[in-house]
């Protein structure tokens, strides 16, 4: 990953679950199948508004802390020392959180998702490992790390472009990078959750 970008991005925000009053022992949510624990879980605000995607492991911690409850579950279970818990598919926070939209979503992963893993200059769809992020207006010339100035880019195009604007490099953007909107957010959640039917009614598709 482009280090300049890495430094320019804010750390990926998390839902602040508040001060851990009575921390949950990690061992209690440890499962034998790591893949299950990494599966995506849709997080709803107390108002049922979808706000984030997290992993099963973190969702279970939020549930054990009494911060969230499961709204939808899978048939599979994870076992803690004392009981079996259905693997959550959708959880809901029990008290309303104000989530600042702008700072939440800017990440390499989300930009690649928005751009469908497609280089925005040559149109090649590539695995994430073969894509970098390009500052349309180079940082050296005042370009910001923002949804509107970052696009998925293959290494060839990135090298060709260098510290120039697309016009100067003779490259053309496939489309203007869209700013973050609620629509983008929902779209990203749908992409992440497309295999999970239980997410549908919360994401309206
Ligand atoms: Zn390219």
Outline of this structure?
The chain is 28% helix and 21% strand.
List keywords for this structure.
disordered N terminus, DNA Binding (I), subunit A, 2 domains, 21% strand, binds zinc ion, 4-stranded mixed sheet, 28% helix, 205 residues, alpha+beta, two-stranded antiparallel sheet
Broad structural category = alpha+beta
Tell me which ligands are bound.
zinc ion
The count of domains is 2
Mean pLDDT: 81
**Tertiary shape:** elongated
Low-confidence stretches: 1-29
Helix proportion of residues, in percent? 25-40%
Q: How many E strands?
A: 6
Instruction: Tell me the β content.
Output: 15-25%
CA-atom Rg in angstroms:
19 Å
Report how far apart the termini are: 33 Å
Strand order of the largest sheet: 2-1-4-3
Biggest pleated sheet: 4 strands, mixed
Tell me the layout of helices and strands.
Elements: H1 3-8, H2 34-38, E1 40-44, E2 50-55, H3 56-64, E3 68-79, E4 84-93, H4 101-105, H5 108-114, E5 131-135, E6 150-154, H6 155-161, H7 166-169, H8 182-192, H9 200-203
Parallel strand pairs: 1-4
Antiparallel strand pairs: 1-2, 3-4, 5-6
Bound molecules: zinc ion.
Detailed description of the structure:
There is one protein chain. By secondary structure, this protein is an alpha+beta fold. The protein has two domains: 26-99 and 182-203, no CATH class; 107-169, DNA Binding (I), subunit A. 28% of the residues lie in helices and 21% in strands. It has nine helices and six strands; from the N terminus they run ααββαββααββαααα. It has helices spanning 3-8, 34-38, 56-64, 101-105, 108-114, 155-161, 166-169, 182-192, 200-203; strands at 40-44, 50-55, 68-79, 84-93, 131-135, 150-154. The strands form two sheets. Strands 2-1-4-3 form a four-stranded mixed sheet, with helices on both faces. It has a two-stranded antiparallel ribbon with strand order 5-6. A hairpin with a 4-residue loop joins strand 3 and strand 4 (84-93). Mean pLDDT is 81; it is low at 1-29. It binds zinc ion. The site of zinc ion has 7 residues, from helix 6.
